[in-house]
Amino acid sequence: MFLKRTIFTTLTSTFRTHHLFHFPSRIFSQISHLHMSVKSHSSHATSSVNYGFPEEDLRQEGNDNPGYFPARLGQTLEGGRFCIVRKLGWGQYASVWLAKDKKEDRFAALKILTCESTRALQESGPKQRSDELRMLQKIASAQPNHRGFKHNLILYDSFEFRGPHGVHLCLVTEVLGYGVDYIRKGNENGDLRLSMALTKRLTKQLLCSLDYLHDVCGIVHTDIKHDNILFRPSDVFAVVAHELTAKPSISYDCGTEVSPPVVPVVSQALPLSTEESVATDQLQAVLADVGHSHWKDRHFQELVQPSALRAPEVILGYSWSTSADIWNLGCLVTEWLIGFWLFEFSPNGDKWDAEEDHLARMTEALGAKFDPNFISKCEHRTKFFNADGSFKNFTGHEEPTWPLEKLLDRFASVDLGKENVDAAARFFASVLAVKSRGTTQCSRAASRPVACRLVIISEVSTHDWDSSLMYQVMAMLNVKSLLAATTVQKDPFTNKPVIL
């Protein structure tokens, strides 16, 4: 499969971070001389949420001002070390910029946090809501030779500086290109599904990433979503040189002859290659943004994860850990195959709320009820369940969620194949385990042997079973023999060898 490369010319609501290689400074000086001029760009419709600005809120004053840094193309930071050459994107807590690192002779991504977010990171005790910098430092240094290391964002440096609104923390990271969300939305006819080949590759790489986060770094990501799964360009310098030539960095046309105090810059994410297409087997996924992540032994809050991907233990107030990430990933993989959310939930008037509806949809899709023993240990059990384990308010749907097997059979990727539908169902039965939430069986789904020793397998040339490799791997999550210290095991469904 090949992914058609399309240049980003529209706005992006998520931030991007990216990769770096050594290159001659003289080449960069030629690029900067030719393309650092700021060109105008017709403004898109503005948003009242951002006080009239086309992207992030760049007001110079205001009591509720988050304090975005109004960076300019060509601006230098950290004593001239970094020269900003492009805006890559922005999000709720920061904007991200492509810069030339003159000290290291490479390109880097500068994630400049708002003043508000910078202050939040400096909090301690109960008021602390994030530990992003320390987590990135841990990820960058814990075990670089680990197979999952390359599937996590790499921090190079950090520094603080003062802007017009106050102090900003700047995280200097590798440079990444577009992500999964961009690929999904670039499909023809609005089809949001991913191919089997890409789904397998992404899942294996993300499991590697999670293994590194969970077992080496002691981090639970809690925010695994399309926007946070990005790809590493094959040659950053070549991609940047090509893009600055073909699509020079631009700012918005402010529609006035008077020079405004702040000129918004257009977000322009980077492609992955200078070629027109990128082969699926060349894609290297990176799980980014630990701004909402938690330490395994220290949570900054208990209500975590995007609502549609939220694990039942989080909703129910059970002590969650790494298995919540596995659930989160399982929901995403389902979405990649069928093209829509697995759990489409909503409140039913004054009868039951959205969270209870979400839990009910889980039982319908997965064909299992929550274990009463698990429910008894949940803080919010009385909000959703009766003493006998039945739902407190939910009575039934006019249109129940289809069983997962039926959803896969009806909507899954066209290249899935009937044999893989059955294997996929086993995969999701293990990852999205409702009945075993809160048990050692569920905890084993996030264990090191699963995410690393088994998923990182030597690729086998036998085509007839390699195509469903990812599902075979995940279907073995609950097999006790998985934990044995052997080098070869058999798949329980095909009886064929899996090389560890």
UniProtKB/TrEMBL annotation:
<keyword id="KW-0723">Serine/threonine-protein kinase</keyword>
<dbReference type="InterPro" id="IPR000719">
    <property type="entry name" value="Prot_kinase_dom"/>
</dbReference>
<keyword id="KW-0808">Transferase</keyword>
<dbReference type="GO" id="GO:0004674">
    <property type="term" value="F:protein serine/threonine kinase activity"/>
</dbReference>
<dbReference type="InterPro" id="IPR051334">
    <property type="entry name" value="SRPK"/>
</dbReference>
<feature type="binding site">
    <location>
        <position position="111"/>
    </location>
    <ligand>
        <name>ATP</name>
    </ligand>
</feature>
<feature type="domain" description="Protein kinase">
    <location>
        <begin position="82"/>
        <end position="428"/>
    </location>
</feature>
<dbReference type="InterPro" id="IPR011009">
    <property type="entry name" value="Kinase-like_dom_sf"/>
</dbReference>
<keyword id="KW-0418">Kinase</keyword>
<keyword id="KW-0547">Nucleotide-binding</keyword>
<dbReference type="Pfam" id="PF00069">
    <property type="entry name" value="Pkinase"/>
</dbReference>
<dbReference type="GO" id="GO:0050684">
    <property type="term" value="P:regulation of mRNA processing"/>
</dbReference>
<dbReference type="GO" id="GO:0000245">
    <property type="term" value="P:spliceosomal complex assembly"/>
</dbReference>
<dbReference type="InterPro" id="IPR008271">
    <property type="entry name" value="Ser/Thr_kinase_AS"/>
</dbReference>
<protein>
    <recommendedName>
        <fullName>non-specific serine/threonine protein kinase</fullName>
        <ecNumber>2.7.11.1</ecNumber>
    </recommendedName>
</protein>
<dbReference type="GO" id="GO:0005524">
    <property type="term" value="F:ATP binding"/>
</dbReference>
<comment type="similarity">
    <text>Belongs to the protein kinase superfamily.</text>
</comment>
<dbReference type="InterPro" id="IPR017441">
    <property type="entry name" value="Protein_kinase_ATP_BS"/>
</dbReference>
<keyword id="KW-0067">ATP-binding</keyword>
